[in-house]
Predict the structure of Cytochrome b5 heme-binding domain-containing protein.
Amino acid sequence: MASTERQITREEVEKHNKDGDLWIIIDAKVYDISRFKNLHPGGASVLLDAEVAGQDATEAFYGLHRHEVLEKPQYQRLQVGVIAGEKSTLHGRITGEISGVPYAEPTWLTAGYHSPYFTENHRQFQKEVRLFMDTVIYPDALAREADGKRPSQSVIDKMAEINLHAMRMGPGKHLQGRKLMNGLVKPEEFDYFHELIITQEFARSSMRGYGDGKVHQFLGYHR
Ligand code: HEM
């Protein structure tokens, strides 16, 4: 059985509440932070606090960290099991997902908002661009941010395949005869609002801090 499936009771976790033998619960998952304690960027003392050591630290954790911290492999490895009979309820962003949080998305593209300019095709286009950003651009932006290298050729090729750069230049003759976004939008239907969506998606991904400057490099901007 993988260590992340091991069923552990809350009573058991409470026993591991001291320096050298330290467990905590975050969102029904049990983490052994005995050794990590001394490497914790937030210091060791907070982890030895009576309300944290051997306890459910979900609120304390989410008050101070982004969810993505727990998704990093070096921290995922700290998980030793799950609380018996309980289920995790918190998750990070779902790939390609359009946020339901009020004002997290451009209002004119949110469901129920009527606009004389934006059509269903624009909304579908937004979804496709978001999915492309999440699955193709982000992973490479993160990796290139870490190693300082240029965007991967494979990513540039994929961008060329859907004609992202051509679309980024806006509507016009240069789109004629090209297949845009796998055929989702016809060259003669492509308008400034489609272009706006692409620009917004790149800006959004930079704001989220995913490979910040690197995301702009994909569009040919420079820091
Ligand atoms: C498995 C458990 C934990 C991991 C992997 C972890 C990891 C980290 C990391 C990577 C940082 C650097 C900042 C960031 O990237 O967000 C950090 C900062 C911090 N952590 Fe934790 N942490 C854990 C549990 C906790 C708990 C339970 C507390 C509770 C009280 C805590 C309190 C803090 C504080 C006070 C900071 C400094 C925040 C700041 O400087 O703004 N951590 N932690």
Remarks:
- Strands lie at 7-8, 17-18, 21-26, 29-32, 79-83.
